[in-house]
Structure formats: C-alpha cells, structure tokens
C-alpha cells in the first residue's frame, strides 16, 4: 500500500511539473515490470536523521500454506519439488553428521527421532541447500528461508497458558474446528466485560481439547487473569458440567465493575510502586516481568503516575478497558460471584495448575485450599502474573 502524506492540503504548484505526486489517501501499490522500491525518510527534530531504501523481496507473492494437522516424524513426505510447497519435511538424527547425510540423499524423506532435528517447509532444492548449510554450521536456526533447525532436543515441559481479558479479542476458532471436524465453541463476539470473559474462557477450553488431539499434551497449566480459572476447569478441578452451568448463568450487564482505568508501564513493579507516592487510589495490579508492569486506579491518579514516569523517560499508555480486576478496589464487588463460586464442587486436578499469585502449583488437597478457591481467584489469582 502507498500511505498518504498527512496534513498535505495545498501542495506547491511546481510539484505538478515533476514526476512526483502527493498521495492524499492510502491506495494499492500496483506491481510493475521492475521491483517496487521506496525511500523512507526519518529526518526530524528527534535527531534520527536517517534514510533507507526498501525493495520488495523476490517472489513476494506466494500461495498461502494450507493449514495442516500434526505431521509426526516418520510420516512419508511428498516428492521434493515445486509441487511440494504445502508439505513439511521433518528429519531427526542422533548427530548433525547423521542429519547432514540424510539431507544429502537423492530424495530426503521425513523420519527419525534423534535429538538433532531439521524442518523444511515446501522443500525445494534451494531450501534443502539452505538446510544443509544450516545443519553443517551446527547452530540453531529459527525459520528464515522456511528452515528450522535445532542441534539438540528441545528441553523442558509443555505448559498451556490460558488467556484472560483482552481489549480486542477475535479468536480464530471456526476454521480450526472445521479442519478437525469438531464443534466450534459458542462465542458471543460481544464487547461487554462478561461477554469478553465468556469468550476467553470458551476459547481456552476449546484449545485445551484441540491440542491433545494434535498430539500436543500439556505437562502443566497456567492462566492469565481469569484464564487461571479456565486452566483449573481444563485440569478437571471443576467438573465440566458444573462449569458450563455456572457460565450459562452469567449474562451481559449482570456484573458491576468500578470505573477504574489501567495503564501499561515500561518498568518493573518496584519502580512503578515508587511512582505512586502520595496517591491513594491507584495500585500496581500486574507485575508482568522485570521491565513491564500495569497500574490501575482512578483516571486522574493513573494519568499522574504515567506523567511522572514519562518525565523520567519511562513509557506508559492507558489501556482501553476498565474493570478493577486484581486490585483492592474490586473487593466490594466480589459478592456478585462469590456465592456462585462457592457452590462449585472442587476436586484435585489431573494436571498441576500453577498460581500466578504464588508462582507455585495449587495445593493438591482441598483442606489446604482455604479461601484461595473462593471467588477471590476470579479477581486476585494473578495479581503477580
């Protein structure tokens, strides 16, 4: 696309006598006989003072790869060549030398289960040659040229992380369900807090069923915000039918929330906490990592914290949703869901669920749960997510 030049209302008359023309609205950039090239300026008061010339990549338009089910090692590969662009060549071996030997064969075929692995999407002769060079080099390669290589088996365990509330939540589920001949989850596609919560929970539970069907099994479960509750349901800590009954009882507009705003900050929670000095209606709600945190509170106080940190060179931005989750200000609103949660039968799960509050697995015996399992898990379980 050709982007428009902003605020250009009266171009200079002499511009008409040149090969240049102003673009006043975004328009398609039609392909011609020569590659499309663009000059991008960054001359301004910011001090960057740079210019870059971009050229479109060769063969920029390629047919999209089809959505494929899990192709295990050992499955036969299609013949190498242009017709195989939708296929994936997967080879494993005990050593890089063994992997190189299999790639050097006249017609490499998927198979093998060694710790050294290479994957080539659409294995053309050019991509196979690149794969051979990558394997010979012996260092991990992460997808450039549609080639993936790891010199050693990927370690660790598999964790499923369930999503929480997002300001714009448009999960891609219908085509996945269609490919796997499954019934898609019932999504409201609504914009209210309850509707987005229901959709996030339904999506997480759907993929918890889909991934094992593709041969991807979880060792542990975790969740972001109310996604932690979805993880508990997926682990069997709540019976599926009881969870369905509870979710079906929720209606848009039923849940009242405080009129509070959030802001994402480009600093850790400790520095964010220091910036709250003198303000009593804003708190650090999320300790995401060493360089990112989220605050929540009354709009004026949140804006004041963002301004303080910007003055110190820390970026911050208000987020486009309001609820007050993960803050003490949500406490007066817990009664709306506490009784419903308390009626849900609770049992030990089939998989460990890690709490974002304690950074440890949930207890295995109900007698140790205490009020942890009450409705506070809805609002406080990931106060340190």
- Protein structure class: alpha+beta
Strand arrangement, major sheet: 3-4-6-5
Can you count the helices? 10
CA-atom Rg in angstroms: 27 Å
- Secondary-structure element sequence? EEEHEHEEEHHEHHEHEEHEHEEH
Number of domains: 4
Biggest sheet statistics = 4 strands, antiparallel
The portion of residues assigned to helices is 25-40%
Q: How far is the first residue's CA from the last residue's CA?
A: 39 Å
Question: What is the strand content?
Answer: 15-25%
**Arithmetic mean of pLDDT:** 81
Query: How many beta-strand runs?
Result: 14
Query: Low-confidence parts lasting 5 or more residues at pLDDT below 50?
Result: 60-86, 367-385
Shape: globular
Quick structural overview:
Residues 161-382 form the Malonyl-CoA:ACP transacylase (MAT) domain. By secondary structure, the chain is an alpha+beta fold. The chain has ten helices and 14 strands.
Structural summary, described in words:
It holds the Pfam family Acyl_transf_1. This is Acyltransferase domain-containing protein. GO terms for molecular function: acyltransferase activity. Keywords: Acyltransferase, Transferase. The chain has 385 residues and is an alpha+beta fold. It has four domains: 43 residues, no CATH class; 69 residues, no CATH class; 108 residues, no CATH class; 62 residues, Alpha-Beta Plaits (2-Layer Sandwich), CATH 3.30.70. Helix content is 25%, strand content 17%. The chain has ten helices and 14 strands. A four-stranded antiparallel sheet has the order 3-4-6-5, covered by helices on one side. The chain has a four-stranded antiparallel sheet with strand order 10-11-9-12. β13 and β14 form a beta hairpin. α1 runs antiparallel to α2 and α4 runs parallel beside α5. It is globular. The C terminus is likely disordered.
